[in-house]
């Protein structure tokens, strides 16, 4: 719990005033009224990154506000300062710089941000992954895939890969030879992206992949809503591995596959309790769908 | 804990551009971004150069784009893009053939068949719109993918105009696909189109301008139902004069199999916002040889079912293709200027046409005044041609040249222009001879006074 000493109250007030001034300056730049802005990158209390993020939230790199900010920051050398600080000693500074780079979608800074993915400080590596997810593009996606191959399946890295990957990168990578940990991550990313082009590679993975890959590809097909994959997923209901059966049941429930209702009923008496539970839930979902349909 | 970074990173270096000079030497990204092999680079550049929109891009930018391309192999039958999904990548077809399909329940319409050198996905990438069509690989395809970030990284700073042009093209193609879909779902018109040939025996007579404006005039009555087929070889520029960027042409359809010919042909038609539609004959001079009489006959047979009027700009030379087209036309307009050489050539051309069996009432002579004080009078022209001039187009100053620069069609933008008035009079002439009576377009269309 933070104790509000008089000194802290005064400092917080000063920071608040500075933040408001920065917000006004950035607003002037974003609206095209001004072409210059000064950033105090050394003041970690000011949290410059969050103020910039406010202005670039859900805006693409081509949008006028992002472009104006980037131009203004490049003009006064602040962009260079941000990239310099990606190698600062202080993790807070590295995190802040990564966030600013991500908020400004600075694609040219990807090689430097990618290096931070290996940081042992979790906040730094997470901030770098988020920044790469926001920047997007082939460079960012490849950096994330490399980090996954080094660090293993990591939730943050996979989520950001799904966000950063351009069209057909994940799908084509699924069909290529990959290290052991990468293919499951790619399958999850493909599922999270919900692109139909991934259905073919995921079906191939379901038919020929390892146990883990088959489990993940089942779920991913369910997330995408690949109704044409229902017969192949239904075939996985007979698998000897309970995890694959459970994953197939969940996918069929998500797909509202009424044609396989009888197969799901059969799994209500499966020898594995978790499969039975999943089958009950999937059937309940299908029945709910029926009721809504009626 | 610090990551593995070069030791000199923490040293302050004011004034040094970080992005330009302080790239780490052993960065893992460095290895990924290594230059593609020489032959690979050549192949990438060749593919990019074939895309019409990159004609004007500087070579350095083209090389930067080529370096950033990502090669993808897609097996036959696989889906590449799905209609309605977001997208951020332009795909160039290096080798193979793809089918663009628009699903408009209950119908599924193939709006284009793309081959080597074509590209797709540009509308989603540049205009942030959902994919307008699904794309399937028809054969095993080798694609080169260029994502939004790479495109902007290479072009945003140096090639703003080219990027803007690319956006314009993306918008134009999107509208064209929409129109093709509408037309395909619409069904065929009950009656077949009237084919009108515009032939100028001497270059510089204004045949292309008259064709373009005639199409403009007719499409004011029948928007989307009038087509200009540009067979003015070897340089077909009608689309550019109308401010459109051609991406396909008739010549490229010579190798298309019979079963998909109709779809591919209609997908090559460019749609102008004012109503006219344009099909270029060839995009490059060397492609003109691909346009054979057989191809023209096949194309006209298909197009006649989909349009009300087909105006064919025939250019200067009389080749086998021109002769084949004379056989297919219902009306031929011979365009000449009041100059001795042009009138002599027109007289010879009319003789040939009469010998070919063209009925005199299906032939019209258009006298296009390209100067304020013509050296030969109308009466003298009629004496030389041994027949009356059916229509005289007044001198229009620099308006036609200005319109060509701006990419506008005078018949649609300036009804007071002499060229527009002439085109309107020609449209009335054609309507009187080949019009469909009560079927004719809306009566609200303002018709300019004939010249």
Structural class call of chain A reads mainly alpha
- Strand portion of chain B: 15-25%
**How does CATH name the architecture of the largest domain in chain A?**
Alpha Horseshoe
**Which oligomeric form is depicted?**
heterodimer
Following the backbone from N to C, one meets helices and strands of chain A in this order, namely HHHHHHHHHHHHHHHHH
* Total count of strands of chain B: 16
Tell me how many strands of chain A there are. Answer: 0
Radius of gyration of chain B: 26 Å
Q: Would you tell me the overall average pLDDT of chain B?
A: 78
Main beta sheet strand tally, sense and closure of chain A? none
Spatial order of the strands in the main sheet of chain B?
11-12-10-13-9-14-15-16
Q: Which two chains form the greatest contact, residue counts included? A: A-B, 45 and 46 residues
CATH class group of the largest domain in chain A: Mainly Alpha
Describe, in plain words, how this protein is organized in 3D:
The complex is a heterodimer of chains A (294) and B (451). Chain A has helices spanning 6-30, 48-56, 64-75, 78-84, 91-103, 110-116, 122-135, 137-151, 155-164, 169-174, 182-193, 199-208, 211-224, 230-235, 242-254, 261-266, 273-293. Chain A is elongated and about 65 Å long. Chain A has 294 residues and is mainly α. Chain B has 451 residues and is an alpha/beta fold. Chain B has helices at 18-21, 28-32, 38-50, 59-68, 122-127, 148-155, 160-186, 207-221, 238-241, 258-267, 293-306, 320-328, 340-355, 378-385, 399-406, 410-413, 418-434; strands at 70-74, 79-81, 89-95, 98-104, 107-114, 119-120, 134-137, 141-147, 194-199, 226-230, 270-271, 277-280, 309-315, 331-336, 363-368, 391-393. Chain B is elongated and about 70 Å long. The relative contact order of chain B is 0.10. The model of chain B is unreliable at 1-33, 186-190 and 438-451 (pLDDT under 50). The interface between A and B is large, with 45 and 46 residues.
